[in-house]
Amino acid sequence: MLQGIYLQRATVCARLHVSVTSSTSANVSYCSGTNSVTGYGRRCEQYTASINGNVLQFKSKLGNAFSFANQGTSLAAEVRLGSLIETYLTQFQKM
């Protein structure tokens, strides 16, 4: 039995702005809001991403791997934080 461990999932408002530069690459701005649990404030970070079919991938400055798959009107996301893998499914809007 684990004792003294407290886990809390933090909800963060995030936006992903993608500018496709070729059939295999894109420029990405990943913006997130303030998170009181983690102590992070609002921020936007820019990355160069690779595109393979309907999957967009990039690594953050901290080494976290992000993968987004277009599934029609929804977006499946996988975030690898070291050995931890989190998956999400959300609606998105093209602008």
Question: Low-confidence runs (pLDDT<50, min 5 residues)?
Answer: 1-10
Strand content: over 45%
What's the count of strands?
A: 7
What topology, given as strand order, has the largest sheet? 1-2-3-4-5-6-7
Oligomer: single chain
Helix content: under 10%
The backbone outline, from C-alpha atoms, is globular
Q: Give a quick account of the main beta sheet: strands, pairing sense, barrel closure.
A: 7 strands, antiparallel
Q: What do these coordinates show?
A:
With 95 residues, this protein is an all-beta fold. The chain is built from no helices and seven strands. Strands 1-2-3-4-5-6-7 form a seven-stranded antiparallel sheet, with no helix packed on it. It is globular. 5% of the residues are buried.
Labels describing this entry:
95 residues, mainly beta, seven-stranded antiparallel sheet, globular, disordered N terminus
Q: Would you kindly provide a brief summary of this structure?
A:
Helices cover 0% and strands 58% of the residues. It has a seven-stranded antiparallel beta sheet, with no helix packed on it. The protein is built from no helices and seven strands.
Q: SSE layout and pairings?
A:
Elements: E1 14-22, E2 25-32, E3 43-52, E4 55-59, E5 65-71, E6 74-81, E7 84-91
Antiparallel strand pairs: 1-2, 2-3, 3-4, 4-5, 5-6, 6-7
